[in-house]
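so my prof wants the structure for this chain in the tokens format not the other one, which i didnt know existed until like an hour ago. anyway here's the sequence
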Amino acid sequence: MEFDTLGDLILNESFREYVEDTNPESVNLWNEYISDNPDKKKEIDDAVTVVKALLNNRKSHVPINKNEALGKLMKIIEEEQPKPVGTIRNFNSIWVKIAAVGLLIFGLSSLWNVFHTRNINNQDLAYNEIIVPLGEKAQLVLSDGSHVWINSASKLRYPVKFGDLSREVTLEGEAFFDVEKKQGKSFVVNTHDVKVNVLGTAFNVRCYPGDKKTQTTVVRGSVKVEDILGEQKAIIIKPNEMATLMAKVPEEQQTSRISSFTVNKVDPIKLVSWKDQMLVFDGESFEDLSLKMERWYNVKIKIETEELKSERFSGKFVHNETVYQVLEAIKITTPITFRVEKDTIIISGIN
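here's what i got, hopefully its the right format
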């Protein structure tokens, strides 16, 4: 029984039962684990504090004011857990995980709805919205059991509970979906460029507003990708395939765009490795690589040498490596130099 992050521990059903003392088997299991793993005690104590805070708020009335609700929950955490010196950044990271993972998993819909709730088309469907900041990631389980991992600088909007006829979410950024199959009930991901339709499958969608392309990659099953403007014929893609919609808005026609679909064979594991805290580049341009690093590390990067933007690079890094360690590794195979000016990393090529 192992866990990699606080989020993993909070999501563990038996751990919640241990904290609530509702299942003797879970209580015995975790008492034995704590006894056998004294080095994990601090992490477990932190998780216990978080879970208790969330459960206490579930039992109490949640105020409508968002800031008041968040302040109340923050106060509970601070009162129950002293904040060690030098851990402010980690504490904030924990709070992103709580907001993006724990609240929904534990069914605290009343608190979560404080973030975003509104009715659509008079159907009385309440919607949640998760906004994941730069440098962070999140995951959640939707009401139908589908599992979603959300990358940094992304936004996911979804119903608190899906309707009887359809399951639709809206994505801006990047997310990996492992969709539960429901007989005759499709699952739809809407983006600014494409609509992705599935029944039960695992796939990744990348659709950042600043990018010139929207990419859909299938790991399991098959999906139908549609151009929302109908300029391109809908296509079906299968495992190990990626559909890319390139969209370009002509300078003289700001209200229209030119689009094209391409389908390529890919290694999906590399493309979705971000959800497992791995930063993988596989023959990517330096320009695309820098965008990934900006979102991953919450930094600003400027490529000073124009020719460098089209250089290709491959590499694999874990999330605990710093952006400077990644750049030093890139220097081994690519002639670059970099410097920091104010809040921006400036990268130049070496002639």
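also thought this was worth mentioning. The mean pLDDT is 75.
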